[in-house]
Amino acid sequence: MRAAQVISYGKPLVVVDAVEPQLHDPFDVIVRIAGAGICRTDVHILHGELDAAFHPSLPLTLGHENSGWIHAVGPAVTHLSVGDPVLVHPAVTCGHCRACRIGNDMHCPSWRFPGVDGWPGGYAELMRTTARSLVRLPDGTDPAPLAPHADAGLTAMHAVRRLVPYTSPESTVVAFGAGGVGQIAVQLLRLLTTARVVVVEIDPNRAEAARRLGAHVVLEQAAPSAASAVRDLTAGRGADIVLDLVGEGDVPEYALGMLAKGGVYAIVGYGGGVRIEHLDMINRELTILGNQVGTHADLVALMDLVAQGHVAVDSTVFPLDAAADVLHDVEAGRVSGRAVLVP
Description:
The protein has 343 residues and is an alpha/beta fold. The chain has 11 helices and 16 strands. Strand 15, helix 11 and strand 16 form a beta-alpha-beta unit. The mean pLDDT is 96.
């Protein structure tokens, strides 16, 4: 089968003829990939930036935002059939530990992360996962354009759901970034909260997408001037919540600095950092929430909203053979929504 792999860090992806995955465990499932979303995490992997965290062996088939159809199932899988359309939760978990039992799949101590930690991902024609990771889609669904929901949508859903208890009609939520995750987050903030939604996005196309998707205010400004604008919008009080979908450059510093007393800094984007002053944290009683990928329950709830027409993702499909070029375009910010590779 064809697969797009990282052969060497810092080098372009290469499409190779790879060995087809086989069923190993009774609960294994082989998915025929319809679409594999490109995430900025894939860019970080390509440059070797996650090697210390995950130690994947190369070559590595990328792809952790995957959708497709059931191709083969293990003997213990009775609720899925060949041909069923599915979305693939990015984690492979044990199902028996405390974290799995209470629904926090991504905290499973033995979890695997296909496309990231060495387990082959979905930039391929076929991919092995487990039945526990799959969400069945309605019959007749075209899974390809929905692939980004497996991570971009799931991450947005998880982060926004965690913020709901901190919101009220008087709240102001500031989201930094209106790329693929941000566009889904805006929709979810409007659906699940009564807060005023402010988006900070300097790219004009993404800024317009944020307006179209329901943001109350869009600031096409860099972080320093956006922080000042947010204080003006809130009569000097500051934001109740900042959802940082960027996490790089000077964004973390100004995101934390623009919070009102009692505010919440929710982190999704990574690559940068900010110094935490304990006295400031105490005086303003700030809360910091780190957000990993969401749970299986988050993904099921998200896909219910998608099926009802309440949440959409702006997907552009490309052939698998163009993987190297498309990944480069994503890194350069030339894709406004989400790019999806189709084998």
